[in-house]
């Protein structure tokens, strides 16, 4: 891959190091940030580098004493077209070397390139071999400065090392996610997308794209909740409320015992639980608590209270307050999470399939319900993935409800459910997936517009990052700290990215890249409402018309 | 009783001397009539219009830098740049550099003289070739023509000065050394070249000796006097060429400390700055500046016997833009007030921040920085030797 003289950009000036050089540009050449260059180092050999900083000036218009445009205009009138100079900083990435697998690798030199070395636009052929290695990949777009060089993400690294997509609102996060999801489906991948703002509800893929998308309502099969999940939902902590936790455990076990003997529904009915659902463990717990409460109030609370053949509930003399408090919490949970918790709901994890994206539309849910849903689903997914891997290790068959692996789990608005300043169920679950998911085929993709509000431990484990426009300095600094591949120069460039332009770093790309992400060719569901069109389309009630009963309020 | 010695703070000293400092820096009240005599200057000309009225104009400036390379020796570089402006054309820059080795003795003064000599030579080349209608120089013509600082600057306590007889012999020796060299026309400071320096030193030693206590520097003093002669001769060559070619030479000084215009103890420019507002100028004053006797002798021998003993200069102070600092203008020749009005108006037209842009551009191109010097030194593979300043961490 030889260099062409027409591609010469400039000449290296000192001081050079093995990892960085500066060059002054040829007359009329203005280097572009993010462009890849070849820095000559030795006979016929060159080092690939990326331009991370560019300065441009005019010899005639330099000097801090020029403080008004009129003075600058006078100079231009005297000299005609002012001269221009450009100087650029290049981060050296390495010499492109052949690897045994037909792809190329990069090796950093041990010595700095010499001052006076030529700097050329890197050959597109070399860049293609770096950014579009042989084998399947997630094709997200092209290099910002090279439309002819596609950038393919390594799906293995993307799943196993997790991914964060960070940007301000409107910078193209959701488009980037949609593009990635579509490409993963083309590879027969498995995607689970939690959608808090119904942005992907009803999403359809680009014409001709393979794979499918299904949107599901946010439901949890209440009977799949573990005791610890119930205790989390009820806000009962063993350390702080040991007695309530003990009674909760007795209720949960008794409810399952009754269900096992087909007695649950009759107990629920007799206890008069509102709006009962057949086989619902939560209803059973409420019913048993009611029964025990009545017995305690009737003075019959001594030892075990029989609930049915072979099923009883052990209660202590001073259990009254604990039971009242627990019953109150259980009832509140049922009332507030009625839409979420159902014994008939299928497990979301069971819907996963190869070539399919499952979009969980969490738009109707409040924040705490969404927290339970995501936390529970992540926990369930990780648990089942572990079972699958364990079965594979011993050569056994995976369980019936085993999810296809690996799975790419996307969580939009991740800073809401995985905040850095408070504990949530999702944060706890995501933290486990971030730590253990690599081994069990569960990859997280966190999407956020407020990186600094994300839990730093979880974010730091999202080794891959797609960073679109980030404006706020605190967010930039936070991203910088959490990203080992991101240089200060690139961080400084983040505010000036245009919509759809992204810095991509991490092991899923061989080199840090500034990429123009493709526009998603399908239809995402919940696009932002367009105010002018919506208002123009709406008719309104007519001038002076107000709803009945409000006329007196109008002056 | 003696004052008690104590550990004093410098701020304390400033505070106690505050009144004296303010009085000393003030220019006094007796120049208030200056504001009444402040003449209007035309400031409505655009740069292009002003250039069209002037025809062509070149700004000339120089740069210099010294780098200590050895105990007792420095490397110097001097430059001279001209930038010619013509209406509707791109500026035409020219630049020459000269580098060499110089002894520590009065090195900074001597390098300044080299620089000024090179500037005068660049201006003379433009004048001889009639390449421009106006030449703008940075600094003061008067100071360079009349003064002979190195001749008078000897400090008897440290090294002996030069007697009148020695001075005459120095001029003769100088003329012998440069007799066959193109001193008035080449863009090189002849006396600063390595070959000429050796000859000059030998000639100087023949004249002043230099073997006694404290006498070791006396030959260098004589050499520096010869260097000063070249500078003066170069200026007079410029004057002669400009007069022959009809080129108007204007020296622009922004930091002049001259006190001759108002005959005050305060610098003229400080008085103008204090008592005038807005664009304008003082009435001009035509002066016959007497050329230093030794320089005149050398110039008549080299440039020609027609070099006059006096140079007529029209001097004035002007502010070329609102809020700008005033400058001192010295125009070669005897100008009428209306000619001065025309010239100053045109200069205001091509001024940026109240300073003629051709000079500003020439200054920018002539600058020599430390990194320029280092790059030059590296290009010849030169590694500075022990300078003695390493102990200070330099």
Secondary structure elements and their pairing?
The complex is a heterodimer of chains A (555) and B (394).
Chain A: E1 8-17, E2 20-25, E3 36-40, E4 46-57, H1 69-79, E5 85-98, E6 104-107, E7 118-121, H2 124-131, E8 138-143, E9 146-153, H3 155-160, E10 163-166, H4 173-186, E11 190-195, E12 212-216, E13 220-221, H5 227-234, H6 242-260, H7 264-271, H8 281-297, E14 303-308, E15 311-315, H9 320-336, E16 341-342, E17 356-361, H10 367-393, E18 407-411, H11 414-417, H12 425-440, E19 442-448, H13 456-460, E20 464-467, H14 473-481, H15 488-493, E21 501-505, E22 513-517, H16 531-537
Parallel strand pairs in A: 10-19, 10-20, 11-17, 11-18, 12-17, 13-16, 18-19
Antiparallel strand pairs in A: 1-2, 1-7, 2-5, 3-4, 3-7, 4-5, 5-6, 8-9, 8-22, 14-15, 20-21, 21-22
Chain B: H1 10-16, H2 18-25, H3 33-36, H4 47-54, E1 56-70, E2 73-86, E3 92-103, H5 107-128, E4 134-138, H6 141-146, H7 149-152, H8 164-178, H9 194-208, H10 218-245, E5 248-253, H11 268-275, E6 280-281, E7 285-290, H12 293-302, E8 310-319, E9 327-332, H13 337-349, E10 351-352, E11 355-356, H14 357-366, H15 370-379
Parallel strand pairs in B: 1-4, 4-5
Antiparallel strand pairs in B: 1-2, 2-3, 5-9, 6-8, 7-8, 8-9, 10-11
Helix pairs in contact in B: 4-13, 5-10, 8-9, 8-10, 8-12, 9-10, 10-12
Structure notes:
The complex is a heterodimer of chains A (555) and B (394). By secondary structure, chain A is an alpha/beta fold. Chain A has three domains: 5-131, no CATH class; 155-219 and 346-464, P-loop containing nucleotide triphosphate hydrolases (Rossmann fold, 3-Layer(aba) Sandwich); 223-342. Chain A contains 16 helices and 22 strands. In chain A, helix 6 packs across helix 8 (281-297). The mean pLDDT of chain A is 88. With 394 residues, chain B is of the alpha+beta class. Chain B has one domain (34-392). Helix content of chain B is 43%, strand content 20%. Chain B has helices at residues 10-16, 18-25, 33-36, 47-54, 107-128, 141-146, 149-152, 164-178, 194-208, 218-245, 268-275, 293-302, 337-349, 357-366, 370-379; strands at 56-70, 73-86, 92-103, 134-138, 248-253, 280-281, 285-290, 310-319, 327-332, 351-352, 355-356. In chain B, helix 5 (107-128) runs parallel beside helix 10, helix 8 packs antiparallel against helix 9 (194-208) and helix 9 (194-208) crosses helix 10 (218-245). The chains are: A alpha/beta (555), B alpha+beta (394). Chain A binds chain B through residues 59-60, 62-63, 65-66, 71, 74-75, 77-81, and chain B through 46-48, 51, 85, 89-91, 350-353, 357, 361, 364.
């Amino acid at each position: 891959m030889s260099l062409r003289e027409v591609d010469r950009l400039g000449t290296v000036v000192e001081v050079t190091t093995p990892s960085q050089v500066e060059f002054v540009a040829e007359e009329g050449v203005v280097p572009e940030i993010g462009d890849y260059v070849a820095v000559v180092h030795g006979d016929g050999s060159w080092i690939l580098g990326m331009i991370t900083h560019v300065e441009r000036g005019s010899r005639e218009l330099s000097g801090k004493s020029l403080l008004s445009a009129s003075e600058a205009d006078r100079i231009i009138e005297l000299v005609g077209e002012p001269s221009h100079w450009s100087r650029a900083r290049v981060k050296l990435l390495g010499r492109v070397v052949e690897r045994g697998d037909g792809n190329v690798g990069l090796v950093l030199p041990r010595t700095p390139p010499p001052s006076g070395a030529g700097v050329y636009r890197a050959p597109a052929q070399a860049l293609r071999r770096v950014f579009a290695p042989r084998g399947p990949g997630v094709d997200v777009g092209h290099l910002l400065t090279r439309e002819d060089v596609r950038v393919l993400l390594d799906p293995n690294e993307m799943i196993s090392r997790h991914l964060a997509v960070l940007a301000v609102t409107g910078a193209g996060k959701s488009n980037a996610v949609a593009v990635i999801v579509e490409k993963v489906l083309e590879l027969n991948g498995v995607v689970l997308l939690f959608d808090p703002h119904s942005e992907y509800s009803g999403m359809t893929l680009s014409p001709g794209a393979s794979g499918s998308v299904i949107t599901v309502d946010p439901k949890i099969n209440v009977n799949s909740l573990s005791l610890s999940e119930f205790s989390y939902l009820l806000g009962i902590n063993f350390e702080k409320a040991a007695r309530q936790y003990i009674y909760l455990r007795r209720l949960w076990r008794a409810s399952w015992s009754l269900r096992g003997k087909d007695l649950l529904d009759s107990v629920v009915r007799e206890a008069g639980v509102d709006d009962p659902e057949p086989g619902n463990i939560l209803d059973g717990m409420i019913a048993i608590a009611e029964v025990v409460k009545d017995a305690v109030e009737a003075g019959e609370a001594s030892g075990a209270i029989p609930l049915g053949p072979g099923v009883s509930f052990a209660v202590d003399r001073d259990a009254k307050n604990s039971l009242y408090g627990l019953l109150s919490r259980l009832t509140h949970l049922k009332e507030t999470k009625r839409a979420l918790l159902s014994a008939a709901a299928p497990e979301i994890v069971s819907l996963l399939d190869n070539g399919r994206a499952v979009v969980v539309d969490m738009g109707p849910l409040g924040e705490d319900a969404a927290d339970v849903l995501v936390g529970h689903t992540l926990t369930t997914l990780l648990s089942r993935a572990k079972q699958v891997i364990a079965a594979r290790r011993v050569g056994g068959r995976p369980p019936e409800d085993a999810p296809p692996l690996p799975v790419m789990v996307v969580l939009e608005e991740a800073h809401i459910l995985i905040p850095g300043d408070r504990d949530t169920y999702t944060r706890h679950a995501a933290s486990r997936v971030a730590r253990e998911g690599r081994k069990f085929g569960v990859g997280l993709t966190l999407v956020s517009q407020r990186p600094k509000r994300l839990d730093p431990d979880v974010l730091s484990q999202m080794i891959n990052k797609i960073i679109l426009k980030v404006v706020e300095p605190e967010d930039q600094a936070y991203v910088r700290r959490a990203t080992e591949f991101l240089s200060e120069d690139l961080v400084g460039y983040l505010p000036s990215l245009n919509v759809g332009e992204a810095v991509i770093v991490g092991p899923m790309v061989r080199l840090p890249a500034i990429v123009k992400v493709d526009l998603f060719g399908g239809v995402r569901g919940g696009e932002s409402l367009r105010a002018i069109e919506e208002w123009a389309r709406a008719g309104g009630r007519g001038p002076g018309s107000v709803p009945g009963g409000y006329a007196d309020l109008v002056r | 009783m003696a004052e008690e010695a104590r550990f004093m703070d410098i701020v304390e000293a400033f505070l106690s001397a505050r009144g004296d400092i303010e009085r000393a820096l003030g220019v006094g009240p007796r120049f208030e009539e200056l504001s009444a005599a402040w003449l209007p200057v035309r400031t409505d000309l655009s740069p292009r219009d002003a250039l069209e009225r002037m025809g062509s104009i070149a700004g000339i400036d120089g740069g210099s830098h010294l780098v200590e390379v050895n105990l007792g020796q420095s490397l110097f570089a001097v430059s001279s740049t001209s930038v010619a402006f013509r209406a509707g054309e791109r500026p035409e820059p020219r630049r020459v550099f000269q580098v060499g080795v110089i002894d520590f003795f009065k090195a900074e003064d001597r390098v300044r003289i080299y620089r000024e000599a090179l500037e005068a030579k660049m201006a003379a080349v433009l004048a001889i070739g009639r390449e421009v209608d106006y030449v703008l120089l940075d600094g003061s013509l008067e100071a360079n023509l009349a003064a002979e600082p190195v001749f008078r600057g000897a400090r008897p306590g440290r090294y002996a000065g030069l007697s009148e007889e020695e001075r005459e012999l120095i001029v003769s020796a100088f003329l012998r050394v440069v007799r066959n060299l193109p001193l008035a026309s080449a863009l090189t400071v002849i006396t600063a070249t390595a070959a000429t320096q050796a000859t000059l030193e030998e000639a100087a030693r023949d004249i002043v000796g230099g073997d006694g206590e404290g006498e070791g520097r006396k030959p260098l003093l004589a050499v520096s006097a010869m260097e000063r002669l070249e500078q003066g001769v170069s200026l007079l060559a410029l004057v002669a060429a400009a007069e022959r070619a009809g080129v108007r030479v204007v020296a622009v000084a922004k930091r002049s400390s001259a006190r001759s215009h108002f005959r005050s103890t305060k610098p003229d420019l400080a008085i103008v700055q204090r008592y005038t507002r807005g664009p304008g100028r003082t009435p001009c004053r035509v002066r016959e500046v007497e050329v230093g006797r030794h320089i005149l002798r050398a110039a008549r021998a080299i440039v020609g016997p027609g070099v006059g003993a006096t140079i007529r200069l029209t001097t004035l102070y002007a502010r070329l833009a609102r809020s700008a600092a005033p400058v001192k203008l010295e125009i070669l020749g005897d100008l009428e007030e209306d000619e001065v009005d025309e010239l100053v108006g045109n200069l205001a037209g091509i001024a940026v921040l109240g300073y003629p842009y051709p000079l500003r551009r020439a200054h920018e191109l002539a600058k020599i920085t430390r990194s320029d010097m280092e790059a030059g030194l590296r290009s010849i593979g030169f590694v500075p030797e022990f300078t003695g300043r390493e102990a200070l961490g330099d």
